[in-house]
User: Which sequence fits this backbone?
């Protein structure tokens, strides 16, 4: 019981972090049709900006300033990079962001070095939030979940209750009509791209010190968030939420389970030793298979439900 | 019905001529073969032979990748899966053969790689080619991560962190060939490169090779004329995976080791970069891309730690300003030469190239000095740059670098309108000429 609850909470925290990343990606994709390959790089930029800012003026200002900075960087990239490539179509746009992800990693190494930097969690957050049976739940993880939920509500309200949100939603499906009504659609695109990057930056600020801030951090989450977006259904925000939580829980539970098929068979009274054919497969524990589970889920989803969990169209 | 028939035949005759003795084609292929034969005789210093070998394998890999990206419009982030798994099966086959349990000569090992690459193409391609465009790209990324994660789960087959190694010198010598000396490996690679290049070029001339171009350009219309676009993509991917597997088998023979890196997203990304830099619009683009890419990775990485940054920036510049890659730049200038208009743009072109070079030298200086400061400042701030001693912490180096960038940028910016005008004028005249020829 204790194990289940704590793992559930950890899985939710990880899933919500994934959602913070994939929500920006989904927003950008559904709006502009651009799959931002460099999205995880903006997550990394957020962490590094927060590291530098929190070293000088503290964590709390960094929580606000770093995402804004990342947003500005994203907007500049859209204005002077993506917009130039836009006329060639979606594949060159994807290629552009792919090249960008290379360059950002190298620039980060150029400025902050190749080793991991020490970006600690703030002192006032360093402690247990509550104790469940005998295991303590760290306060910072609770804070992560709180920020993610806050962001979720904020996006929802922004998209459905404000004027700019309505323009964004309209530009999603009918860009020409919105343009005809006098709105500057390219500028809306720039704002959405910058906003999406800022969300990734925010995830970096709170994810960078929860995990580790290093040049490889973009690559570790990069492919997972693409899985989230495809599994959830391309361009569906709700789908991204469901898929993030699903994958967060799946991975967290799998890592903690140290059982294999051998355990199952010996429970059933069959004896299996290294001599049995296929022993290397049977002896794999669930924890060992954890890294491939999201990708396996991706393949299964594509075979049985190609439009994704919440997707509406088949792309 | 008859009008439709006559229409199609007339279209076929204009786009593809029946020429049993195509002199130009014989000439080009013979030149290619001669080049392959004499290349190691010209570049025979130090490590150049191993670089040539590497280029050969990357060329096959790049050409097979271009079957997807250039000819099919399928942007794959996971093409290394096919070459890497092909390489793994090839190296296991070699180990079995040297153990005596599998009678297969080293010369045919690439075929083993190709067949297994193809089998995995049949398996994974079924899932990936269900989609096209952006979704296809994401699924291929998922597949490559899946295989890479698996490679660490099954150390028996993939060899874990250390990989699988082998010895290519085994069994009896066949006609005195033992594959001990690197030169023999080079000619094996050259042989397979020639065969594969002919095969892949022939593919572009088959009905499937033509219809995959149509699927790239307008899948909806292809569906209307009665083709299943998914099948077309699937078959192309299977064939592409076959050639990728051959290149994997050759690299297994060349390096005598295969590690998990061979099936990684990093390797897939590298071939994407090389192919696109070379040019996806032309059949020979990936050949140029392989040469440039191997040069950048092998030679540049000896000189500078920032080579990946240069590669990334170079790639972005190509994507933004020359989406046809180096091949398209070459062909555009070649067209000017053929129509004797190159003299019109040459002086301005030279100015632009000079300006770009100046700015690049300045930019390289800035990047190198920054790298030195962040990564190697412990060994003192003085460094060697372009043959001279520069103090990365001093003002002089930075001033020179910034001045170079500024002068280069200014020259570029001032020279651009005149260059563009000359370029447009020359191309306009060429189009006028072509129109007159046809009239």
Assistant:
């Amino acid at each position: 019981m204790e194990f289940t609850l704590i793992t559930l909470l950890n899985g939710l925290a990880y899933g919500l972090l994934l959602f913070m990343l994939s929500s920006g990606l989904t927003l950008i994709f559904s709006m502009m049709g651009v799959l931002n390959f460099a999205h995880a790089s903006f997550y990394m930029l957020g962490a590094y900006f927060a590291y530098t800012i929190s070293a000088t003026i503290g964590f709390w200002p960094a929580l606000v300033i770093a995402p804004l900075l990342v947003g500005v960087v994203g907007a500049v990239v859209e204005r002077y990079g993506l917009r130039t490539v836009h006329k060639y179509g979606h594949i060159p746009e994807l290629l552009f962001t792919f090249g960008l992800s290379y360059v950002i990693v190298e620039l980060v190494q150029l400025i902050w070095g190749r080793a991991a930097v020490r970006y600690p969690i703030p002192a006032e957050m360093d402690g247990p939030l509550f104790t469940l049976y005998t295991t303590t739940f760290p306060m910072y993880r609770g804070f992560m979940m709180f920020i993610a939920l806050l962001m979720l509500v904020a996006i929802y309200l922004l998209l459905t209750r404000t004027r700019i949100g309505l323009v964004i939603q309209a530009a999603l499906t009918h860009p020409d009509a919105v343009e005809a009504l006098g709105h500057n659609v390219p500028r809306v695109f720039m704002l959405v791209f910058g906003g999406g990057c800022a969300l990734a930056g925010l995830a970096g600020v709170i994810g960078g010190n929860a995990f580790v801030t290093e040049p490889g951090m973009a690559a570790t989450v990069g492919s997972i968030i693409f899985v989230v977006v495809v599994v959830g259904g391309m361009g569906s925000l709700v789908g991204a939420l469901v898929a993030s939580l699903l994958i967060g829980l799946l991975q967290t539970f799998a890592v903690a389970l140290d059982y294999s098929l051998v355990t199952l068979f010996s429970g059933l009274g069959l004896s299996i030793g290294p001599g049995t054919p296929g022993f290397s497969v049977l002896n794999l524990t669930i924890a060992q298979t954890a890294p491939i589970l999201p990708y396996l889920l991706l393949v299964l989803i594509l075979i049985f439900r190609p439009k994704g969990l919440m997707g509406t169209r088949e792309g | 019905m008859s009008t439709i028939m006559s229409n199609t035949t007339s279209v076929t005759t204009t786009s593809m001529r029946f020429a049993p003795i195509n002199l130009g084609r014989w000439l080009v292929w013979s030149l290619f073969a001669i080049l392959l034969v004499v290349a190691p005789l010209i570049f025979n210093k130090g490590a150049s032979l191993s670089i040539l070998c590497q280029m050969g394998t990357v060329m096959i890999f790049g050409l097979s990748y271009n079957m997807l990206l250039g000819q099919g419009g399928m942007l794959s982030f996971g093409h290394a899966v096919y070459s890497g798994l092909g390489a793994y099966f090839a190296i296991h086959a070699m180990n079995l053969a040297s153990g005596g349990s599998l009678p297969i000569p080293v010369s045919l090992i690439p075929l083993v790689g190709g067949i297994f690459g193809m089998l995995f193409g049949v398996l994974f391609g079924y899932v990936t080619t269900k989609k096209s465009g952006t979704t296809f790209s994401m699924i291929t990324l998922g597949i490559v991560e899946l295989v890479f994660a698996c490679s660490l789960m099954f150390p028996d087959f993939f060899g874990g962190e250390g990989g699988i190694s082998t010895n290519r010198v085994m069994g009896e010598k066949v006609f005195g060939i033992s594959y001990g000396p690197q030169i023999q490996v080079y000619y094996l690679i050259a042989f397979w490169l020639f065969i594969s290049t002919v095969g892949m070029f022939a593919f572009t001339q088959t009905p499937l090779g033509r219809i995959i171009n149509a699927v790239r350009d307008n899948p909806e219309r292809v569906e209307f004329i009665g083709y299943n676009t998914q099948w077309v993509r699937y078959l192309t991917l299977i064939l592409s995976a076959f050639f990728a597997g051959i290149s994997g088998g050759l690299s297994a023979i060349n390096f005598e080791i295969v590690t998990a890196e061979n099936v990684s997203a990093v390797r897939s990304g590298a071939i994407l970069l090389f192919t696109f830099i070379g040019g996806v619009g032309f059949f020979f683009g990936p050949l140029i891309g392989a040469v440039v890419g191997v040069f950048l990775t092998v030679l540049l990485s000896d000189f500078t730690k920032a080579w990946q940054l240069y590669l990334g920036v170079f790639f972005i510049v190509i994507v933004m300003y020359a989406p046809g890659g180096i091949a398209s730049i070459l062909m555009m200038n070649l067209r000017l030469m053929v129509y004797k208009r190159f003299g019109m743009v040459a002086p301005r072109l030279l100015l632009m190239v000079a300006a770009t070079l100046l700015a690049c030298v300045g930019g390289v200086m800035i990047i190198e000095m920054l790298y030195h400061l962040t990564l190697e400042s412990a060994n003192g701030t003085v460094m060697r740059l372009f043959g001279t001693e520069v103090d990365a912490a001093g003002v002089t180096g930075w001033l020179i670098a910034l001045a170079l960038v500024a002068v280069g940028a200014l020259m570029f910016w001032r020279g651009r309108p005149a260059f563009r005008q000359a370029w447009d004028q020359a191309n306009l005249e060429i189009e006028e000429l072509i129109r007159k020829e046809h009239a």
